[in-house]
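Q: Give me the 3D complex with hypoxanthine.
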Amino acid sequence: MSSSEEIKGGVHKTTSHDSARKHVNGAAIFIDDMPSFPDTQEAALLLSPYAHAKILEIDITQALASLGVSAVITAKGIPGKNDIAPVFSDEPVLASQIVEYAGQPIVAISADSYDNAFAAIKKVKVVYEELIPVLTIQEAWDKEQFTYEPAKVETGNAVEAIKAADFVLNGEVSCGGQDHFYLESQIALAIPEEDQAMLVYSSTQHPTEVQHGVSNVLGIPQNDVTVEVRRMGGGFGGKESQSTIIAAIAALLAEHCRTPVKVRLRRDVDMIATGKRHDFLFKYQVGFNEAGEIGGAIIDMAARSGNVADLSAGVLGRALCHADNAYFIPNALFRAWPCKTNTVSNTAFRGFGSPQGMLVIETIIEHIAHELKRPVEDIRSINWYGEKNRNVTPYGQTVTDNIMAQIVDRLEVEGHLHERRMAIEEYNRTHKTLKKGIALMPVKFGISFNAVPLNQAGALVHVYTDGSVHLNHGGTEMGQGLFTKVAQVVSSVFQIDIDHVKISSTRTDKVPNTGPTAASAGSDLNGMAAFNAAEEIKGRMKQVAASHFGVETDSIEFRQNRVYAGNESLKFSEVAELTWSSRISLSATGYYQTPDIHWDGKSMSGSPFYYYTYGASISEVVIDTLTGESRVLATDILQDVGSSLNPGIDLGQIEGAFVQGLGWLTSEELVWDQDGRLMTHGPSTYKIPGSRDVPPRFKVHILEDTPNTVPTIYRSKAVGEPPLMLALSVWLAIRDAVARTRDYKVFPKLNAPATPEAILMALDAM
Ligand code: MTE
Ligand code: HPA
Ligand code: MOS
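A: Here is the predicted complex, encoded as structure tokens.
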């Protein structure tokens, strides 16, 4: 691969996000900004007020007669299957006989204006028979009420190993859920086309699944449904499966009225009716020796799955495969319990179960350090994955690319961990109410979907005769910079300026049968597919150029927007024109499948990840022991991203992910009332981090000179999710500050999120 130094926008260079300016000046077109078609109808939803109830009767007569109403749909009006579940078949679009959470859609209405649709909703009469809801994880767990068959990851004999251990600890900890709070709430616009065809604009990370959902509910083949998305105003996992129901409702209404229908959720409806990050209860038992070396661990993870399974099996699977984090646990029994509750179904959220899995193992590591009165660094380093016999994970994958210890050692030195610890001791001695704490968090994160079939991608590249390039692939843009990165790849292959590469909307009729843009694998998968498509066209252009110049194909070189044969050259556009006139195709598809991965879902073992990414962070916090408030004072991050495709974008991903994790762990709290109604459904009661919550000293460093050990696209590594888990350093630092109030005599009982109340309770318990 020749160097891309001379062209604008090749790989390994900071190139600004293609929409950066447009995001700021308003020129970026989101679905709600698209010019309206005549007769476009707006929709409103009737949501269940009860967490658990039988539906005895639905009367829509008055709603149908209401001003401006064009369609009123209930479960009965669904021509195809009333199911949009992504994995199992348990998720209705509209509830028919029973409602299982407060906020579940029952009726959808379209009208000539949003106000008219909203007014009509109030005229629907539903008779319910209330049932007793199950609202907590513990209650569902006690009743063994699950959304699917619980799974476990097991190696060796944890029970025996713990029995034989010198020391044994038991503990419990819990963490909260998290709303995605994307700026653009869920939205879809469905446009009926000729015959039964349906075109759907959907704010989705998974156009193919939206296509399948619409095809299923309308009872029409997949080739009658086209789904398009140019960009999302954020997804964060919340539009991996949750966008399907919105699109399905839009399509059902559009099919009914034969006019375009737009479904866009108000912020509070979005928060009430759509899924979030899973909250978890953990119970653990760990056996270890004098040195702190873990002999065996049993971890039970009970998660709030919600009313249906949705993606819980994948999320809990990832939690099980990250409860080891970077530590070798020879005897492990990790069990995940998908608790079925009468609350909205939880779903994908950046990290996909890994943040929760890591929270519990880091708690265990600190608990061991506390018990042995040893520095936590010692406990970490004795347990790192290592050489032979110490490099196999509980799920059976051999860790071959481990650089965890190097990263942590370097960050400890460069972040002055030991000096700052001493300074904090001094500070705490001289301050009565304010107490500081500091902690380090290592993160090892596996890249690839744990569902093997999802690890494939396609691309479509056209070169036109003026040398401009049209680029399309199955990945979606949600702000993470995927489209820019893939355009950089194509610009590098052809050695042309990135301005000549036109980024286009994701469409199921251009690149079919795609997986979701998720698992941080977007650029790995789509970058490689686009690379393959561009290489195919480049090969054909080379042959044309070679015959033009009368030289061997091998001696043709693409450089600086030109095509060279020794000293002679033509413009890239001239070779494109020549290729056309030679009657050779300038269009190609590209395809990629991640190699060397396998997974057995029954035994929950295999080698599911193509590689791991590594990172570490140190955070210093201060807490107010009277009010429970906390602040992050400083954060240092060292993150491995392989040979970065775009260091500027990667830096933004690391910072953004960290701050999003900080919100999950400190300020964002979901509260339901005693009847199971979400009370925190807007920014006044649900506190996402603001600009002043960003650490005032925030040093983010990308690890240099570490190309991926496996041949990913230009040896880069995924970046989207892993840095979210680095925010656990803040939560650990808060626990450190709490522990210091009693000179580490007691191991604090702190759960996440560490809100002021939680910190005060932890202090009280000391
Ligand atoms: N960054 C922005 N700005 N907006 C998003 O919605 N989603 C995250 C991450 N970064 C997200 C984001 C999540 S959950 C994932 S899985 C990855 O981006 C997906 O994109 P990638 O695979 O291209 O990194
Ligand atoms: N991450 C995100 N989405 C997914 C995954 C994953 O690992 N597996 C299946 N869907
Ligand atoms: Mo990200 S949670 O895998 O969409």
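A quick observation: The chain has three domains: 20-28+456-593, 36-132+180-273, 401-445+612-766.
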